[in-house]
């Protein structure tokens, strides 16, 4: 278990460096992340490289007995690059990115890729074997702030080349996209446009899906290029990159991207900007489990909130004890390395309001002592369990093609959510809601890519929003259920194939026999609540309401809303299939209703659960020496977890003998 901080010595004076490292080490930190925004520093003019600054800093880090993670500084580039090669600039939604911000790069640009390749090569040659260096972070938050999509002419040229490679002929492309619709049949590759901003009707859904896949492949190739250089010139150092909330904000297939890397990192900010309260704790847990699940192993939090954050505006100030709680939650959910963002708050630049461990001065803050105490408290336990596998009998499954599909065709306005203009994260929010019902019942739960998961390790699989189906995955699920597993399917299951064509069978398509139902009618209700009933217990749902037609399934819940013509019709069913069963949920349930449903499913499958109120999270971890029962109070008040009284923001770790 390691703790560290994100450090920017280039933003301070040489008189600060030794004192800074001493302060960090006294706090209990042993790792610093460096250099991820330093391209202009190391290559001030094209081809003129100077890494002496970072060599000196690495020497100093080593003298303090600390270690370093170096970032390849390709997330932003020096003005000379854009001035000499304007085609390196990205265009998003009609706006050309410019020098002065970050993540400006067109990943399709040969000039940018060549410049980045040269930079990473020279950096690895100069610093890659330094004894203080333990790891590389490739780029920084790659694809964030809308930089995953590029509508530039350079991107269009590359998109057409990608399509040629994939389809070989325009005949195959037209057939796959269904281009005959509206008569948009291409007979020249140069006729294919960028599916970007439009006045009215959108582009072909199959075309948009390919445009997203093209961008994902382009970013994956960019990371792979850097990884190959670093493995050759900096042997023995681990490779990662840092992701960010929310899981499916970018169109990038992160599971594919991390095949080229050694471990997953992400940036954990439970509150940001003008939020008036933090994200609910289950939503933070699902982010941890998403990142843990990409490689199904322990992960790093490369930027763990240590103050409160924002660029232009600020909001919620974490209460005393809450920052250390979030750190401990990360470790409990699978992190084995925590780096705090940032060591000291910047006095100038765009992140003056991103408060770190220290403020703009060097006086030790309450946050410093809180985190120092929190590290000392959890370290003896974390050393035992943090790098061990995270046990779970339940998994929620996600799918990148479906995430992309619901960005441009959400079906219901209730599945549209754009907190900022470049984001459509309705899929993310819905997936988190399905996960949250299990988390609030304190069930250890994995969150995994459907195509990667070993289904037979779990008693229960939950598969929401699986509209675009993969035949191989459906077959594996059929084998899983037949052998005794429990599958929970969500609404819109089995509607499309992976080319984006609606199947010529009613929902749930290939799941029809397994689920024992048929769906020919549904209503998109947005956020408007619709009433239904579990036995005698009332519930509410929204977004999409399917009218289920049982064939072999038994009814578990029916609509009771007097305003709806489908009052009395089934909304949730249960079907026996082989030795297992399938629960089909024909609507988006509100959180309490999800909890009621999961209680029944968990009991039937023999999976234990508990409920200690909306603010208590219990997690079970297995260590090398002992097992652990961990209670986290996410409330600023005293609460009870059974007979245990938890103080505000307390984390209680109870060691158990290994059975």
TrEMBL record:
<dbReference type="InterPro" id="IPR013738">
    <property type="entry name" value="Beta_galactosidase_Trimer"/>
</dbReference>
<feature type="active site" description="Nucleophile">
    <location>
        <position position="303"/>
    </location>
</feature>
<dbReference type="Pfam" id="PF02449">
    <property type="entry name" value="Glyco_hydro_42"/>
</dbReference>
<keyword id="KW-0479">Metal-binding</keyword>
<keyword id="KW-0326">Glycosidase</keyword>
<dbReference type="Pfam" id="PF08532">
    <property type="entry name" value="Glyco_hydro_42M"/>
</dbReference>
<dbReference type="InterPro" id="IPR013529">
    <property type="entry name" value="Glyco_hydro_42_N"/>
</dbReference>
<comment type="similarity">
    <text>Belongs to the glycosyl hydrolase 42 family.</text>
</comment>
<feature type="active site" description="Proton donor">
    <location>
        <position position="141"/>
    </location>
</feature>
<dbReference type="GO" id="GO:0005975">
    <property type="term" value="P:carbohydrate metabolic process"/>
</dbReference>
<dbReference type="GO" id="GO:0009341">
    <property type="term" value="C:beta-galactosidase complex"/>
</dbReference>
<feature type="domain" description="Beta-galactosidase trimerisation">
    <location>
        <begin position="392"/>
        <end position="607"/>
    </location>
</feature>
<dbReference type="InterPro" id="IPR029062">
    <property type="entry name" value="Class_I_gatase-like"/>
</dbReference>
<dbReference type="InterPro" id="IPR017853">
    <property type="entry name" value="GH"/>
</dbReference>
<feature type="binding site">
    <location>
        <position position="102"/>
    </location>
    <ligand>
        <name>substrate</name>
    </ligand>
</feature>
<feature type="binding site">
    <location>
        <position position="106"/>
    </location>
    <ligand>
        <name>Zn(2+)</name>
    </ligand>
</feature>
<feature type="binding site">
    <location>
        <position position="140"/>
    </location>
    <ligand>
        <name>substrate</name>
    </ligand>
</feature>
<dbReference type="GO" id="GO:0004565">
    <property type="term" value="F:beta-galactosidase activity"/>
</dbReference>
<feature type="domain" description="Glycoside hydrolase family 42 N-terminal">
    <location>
        <begin position="6"/>
        <end position="378"/>
    </location>
</feature>
<keyword id="KW-0862">Zinc</keyword>
<protein>
    <recommendedName>
        <fullName>Beta-galactosidase</fullName>
        <ecNumber>3.2.1.23</ecNumber>
    </recommendedName>
</protein>
<dbReference type="InterPro" id="IPR003476">
    <property type="entry name" value="Glyco_hydro_42"/>
</dbReference>
<keyword id="KW-0378">Hydrolase</keyword>
<dbReference type="GO" id="GO:0046872">
    <property type="term" value="F:metal ion binding"/>
</dbReference>
């Amino acid at each position: 278990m390691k703790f560290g901080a994100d450090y920017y010595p280039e933003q301070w004076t040489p008189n600060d460096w030794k004192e800074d490292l001493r302060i960090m080490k006294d706090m209990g930190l042993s790792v610093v992340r460096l250099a991820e925004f330093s391209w202009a520093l190391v290559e001030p003019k094209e081809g003129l490289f100077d890494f002496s600054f970072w060599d000196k800093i690495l020497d100093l880090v080593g003298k303090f007995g600390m270690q370093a993670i170096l970032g390849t500084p390709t997330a932003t580039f020096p003005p000379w690059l854009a001035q000499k090669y304007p085609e390196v600039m990205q265009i998003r939604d009609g706006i050309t990115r410019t020098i002065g911000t970050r993540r400006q790069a067109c990943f399709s640009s040969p000039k940018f890729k060549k410049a980045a390749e040269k930079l990473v090569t020279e950096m690895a040659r100069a610093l890659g074997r330094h004894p203080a260096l333990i790891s590389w972070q490739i780029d920084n938050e790659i694809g964030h702030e809308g930089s995953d999509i590029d509508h530039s002419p350079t991107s269009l040229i590359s998109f057409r080349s990608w399509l040629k490679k994939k389809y070989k002929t325009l005949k195959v492309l037209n057939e796959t996209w269904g281009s005959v619709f509206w008569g948009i049949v291409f007979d020249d590759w140069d006729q294919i446009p960028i599916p970007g901003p439009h006045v009215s009707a959108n582009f072909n859904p199959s075309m948009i899906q390919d445009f997203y896949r093209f961008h994902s492949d382009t970013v994956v190739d960019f990371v792979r290029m850097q990884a190959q250089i670093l493995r050759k010139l900096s042997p023995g150092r681990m490779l990662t990159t840092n992701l960010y909330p929310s899981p499916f904000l970018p169109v990038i297939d992160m599971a594919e991207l991390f095949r080229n890397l050694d471990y997953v990192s992400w940036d954990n900010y439970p509150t940001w900007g003008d939020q008036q309260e933090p994200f609910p704790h289950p939503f933070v847990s699902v982010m941890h489990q998403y990142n843990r699940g990409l490689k199904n192993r322990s992960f790093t939090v490369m930027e763990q909130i240590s103050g409160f954050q924002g660029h232009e505006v600020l909001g919620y100030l974490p209460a005393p004890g809450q920052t250390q709680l979030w750190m401990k939650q990360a470790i409990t959910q699978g992190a084995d390395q925590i780096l705090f963002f940032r060591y000291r708050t910047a006095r100038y630049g765009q992140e003056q309001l991103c408060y770190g461990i220290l403020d703009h001065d060097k006086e030790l803050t309450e946050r410093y002592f809180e985190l120092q105490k929190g590290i000392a408290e959890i370290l003896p336990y974390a050393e035992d369990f943090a790098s061990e596998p995270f046990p779970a009998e339940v998994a929620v499954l996600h799918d990148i093609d479906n995430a992309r599909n619901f960005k441009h065709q959400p079906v219901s306005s209730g599945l549209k959510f754009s907190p900022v203009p470049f984001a459509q994260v309705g899929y993310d929010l819905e997936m988190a809601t399905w996960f949250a019902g299990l988390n609030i019942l304190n069930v250890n739960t994995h969150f995994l890519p459907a195509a990667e998961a070993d289904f037979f390790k779990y008693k229960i699989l939950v598969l929401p929003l699986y509209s675009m189906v993969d035949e191989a995955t459906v077959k594996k699920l059929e084998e899983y259920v037949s052998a005794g597993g429990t599958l929970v399917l969500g609404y819109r299951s089995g509607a499309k194939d992976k080319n984006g064509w609606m199947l010529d069978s009613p929902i749930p398509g290939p799941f029809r026999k397994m689920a024992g139902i048929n769906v020919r009618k549904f209503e998109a209700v947005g956020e408007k609540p619709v009433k239904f009933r579990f036995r005698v217990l009332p519930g509410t749902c929204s977004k999409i309401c399917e009218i289920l037609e049982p064939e072999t399934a038994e009814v578990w819940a029916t609509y009771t809303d007097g305003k709806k013509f489908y009052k009395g019709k089934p909304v949730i069913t249960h079907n026996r299939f082989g030795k297992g069963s399938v629960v089909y949920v024909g609507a988006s349930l509100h959180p309490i209703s999800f909890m009621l449903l999961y209680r029944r499913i968990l009991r039937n499958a023999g999976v234990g659960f508990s409920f200690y109120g909306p603010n208590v999270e219990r997690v079970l971890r297995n260590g090398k020496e002992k097992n652990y029962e961990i209670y986290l109070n996410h409330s600023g008040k005293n609460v009870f977890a059974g007979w245990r009284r938890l103080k505000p923001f307390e984390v209680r770790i109870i060691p158990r003998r290994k059975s």
